[in-house]
## 1
Amino acid sequence: MAPRGRILVSPMGAHLMLCQPHLTCGDKFYDPLQHCCYDDAVVPLGRTQKCGNCTFRVCFEQCCFWSLRPLESFVVKVKGQSCFLALSPDDRLCRSVG
């Protein structure tokens, strides 16, 4: 599910009201300066996950299946970049584990 933008009014102190941008992930609001929407869940910006023998930052990168016959591997690419594009200097090739 793609994040959707909203403006929330939240109390900041006894008398001050401040408008802050928030996004939604499913039916939950989150602050994009602290969290992101990953796999329909609100997660901290620093969250990592395994991608073969590599680790990737789920808010900024994605794990893509990559087949180098006869080996099957993974590639970590910048989030939003197509997994089907050729390898670029920014991509990380990761071996399968197991």
## 2
Amino acid sequence: MVLVPDEGKSLPPPGIVNRNSVWLAGVGWCTAMLHNAMKHRPPLQSGVHRQVLAASIGWFIGYHLTKYADYTYARLDRDMNEYIRLHPDDFAPKEKRTFAEIVEPFHPVR
């Protein structure tokens, strides 16, 4: 698909089973079952080929949406790291403090 430009091709592919593909496959399957129910056919037994087709289309769309999201987040991370590298004075390391220095002393009231 053309969603991801050529510079995104170097990213590792997402897993075949990811949350977007599973969710959209379920939506496709439920859509086919809802169509069967609206046509007064038995929802699970009739049109199994359409159920498989709708689930496959949902899986395909979810996979490519995950691929596009991975590319977008990688591009944003690259831009942010480049900005940090070019402006180190804006991102000076903070001094290390212990937890005891942060919290106030505890005095119970009785």
